[in-house]
Every structure is written in C-alpha cells, then in structure tokens.
Design a protein that fits this description.
The complex is a heterodimer. Chain A is mainly β. Helices cover about 0% and strands about 55% of the residues of chain A. The mean pLDDT of chain A is about 95. Chain B is mostly beta strands. The chains are: A mainly beta, B mainly beta.
C-alpha cells in the first residue's frame, strides 16, 4: 500500500457541481494534513490545512477521518477557475513528509 | 507575488556541465526544502534544511549537492547529470522543518521552480 494515495482522475464536472476528493494515508500516527492546489506548470500553493474537527473556507470543506485514515476535500458550486490538480500532503509522527500524486479536476462550462 | 524566488526559471544543460539552482525566501522562515517533480510522479522531497543544518537527505545521488549558507538562501549544485534528472525542481520554505505543534509552522511556500532539461 502506498503511503499516501489519491485517485489521479481526471474528474470532469460541470460548473456549479459539487465534487469531493479523498486522500488515504497508511501511517495511522500521522499528525499534520494539508491540501495544496497546483495549476498547470505552476508551483503548488496551499489551499487548506486540515484540522481534526474539520474546517471550511468558503466553498471548500476539508475533513479528517482518523479511523479510516483519509482526508477529504469537498468543493461546492465549482467554478471554471477551480480546474487544477489537488495535492494532499501528510506529515507523520516520524516527521516524514509524503505527498500524494494529486487529483486532476476539470470544471467545464 | 511569491515570497520564494527561484532562478533560473529554465535550464538546459549537457551531461558534463556544472550548474547551480538558486532559491531565496523573504518570509523569515527557518526551514528550506528542495523537491523534484517529474511527470506522473508525486513530489519527491530531496533535501531539508532547518536553521541552516541539513536534516534530511532522501537518498539523493551525489551529483546533486545542496548548500545552505543561511536561512534565507538555498542552492542546488548540479554536475554530471543524467537525462532522467530532467524535471521541475521546486524550492520551498516553512517556519520550521516538520515540527509537531501548530499546523501553521509546517505550511510550505513554494517558488515557481526551475524546469531542467538534461541533454
């Protein structure tokens, strides 16, 4: 099992749709979780930190499920500008930092 | 405008060349990182520096040689590279390196990267 796994997609959704991505991790003692966004040929940029209790930022909601060892990202009312690759990153209790491969999202008009 | 700047943005080099990548951060951070990003692969963490000291080297070949003269600057010296080393090389910084405690300390900010082609 990979240390961090994401469905690479692509996810093709129409504008206004709600879409969700998951990211599973193998180290049950992982401590820190983040979602980053990477546009084509650009650098990754932080989208959201993921808090234990879940957190929301506008149209974006992040959740952590420790029992099943995954984090999720929900995007509501998708915009064309949301088209990007969404990367999850996990920091384990061993201070090892692992990135997922990313999930590609295309929002279509 | 990013607080992390990388130069050059593009680099083409032959296998016998020696070149260096430069990274500078203006965020007052204490940790800096080099990553390699290849097509269809996750970001690969190469080196970690915390307060100028190298704290992680993820089995990177010796043809890649990092240098961190201070907390704001990071270099990656390249020599006798192979074609498979062609990739996007990203520099990042954070308040500290892979610490416990508040998530904010671990947030990484990236430079725009150097796209390297080895011929």
């Amino acid at each position: 099992r990979k240390e961090v796994e994401q469905d690479p997609g692509p996810f093709n959704v129409p504008e206004g749709a709600t879409v969700a991505f998951n990211c599973t991790y193998s180290n049950s003692a992982s401590q820190s979780f983040f979602w980053y966004r990477q546009d084509c040929r650009k650098e990754p940029k932080l989208l959201m930190s993921v808090y234990s209790s879940g957190n929301e930022d506008g149209r974006f909601t992040a959740q952590l499920n420790r029992a099943s060892q995954y984090i999720s990202l929900l995007i509501r009312d998708s915009k064309l500008s949301d088209s990007a690759t969404y990367l999850c990153v996990v920091i384990g209790n061993n201070r090892k930092l692992i990135w997922g491969l990313g999930t590609s999202l295309a929002v279509n008009p | 405008e990013t607080g992390v700047t990388q130069t050059p943005r593009h680099l083409v080099m032959g296998m016998t060349n020696k070149k260096s990548l430069k990274c500078e951060q203006h965020l007052g951070h204490n940790a800096m990182y080099w990553y390699k990003q290849s097509a269809k692969k996750p970001l690969e963490l190469m080196f970690v520096y915390n307060f100028k000291e190298q704290t992680e080297n993820n089995s990177v070949p010796s043809r890649f040689s990092p240098e961190c003269p201070n907390s704001s600057h990071l270099f990656l010296h390249l020599h006798t590279l192979q074609p498979e080393d062609s990739a996007l090389y990203l520099c990042a910084s954070s308040q500290v390196a892979l610490a416990g405690g508040p998530l904010t300390k671990n947030i990484q900010y990236f430079g725009a990267g150097t796209r390297l082609s080895v011929l």
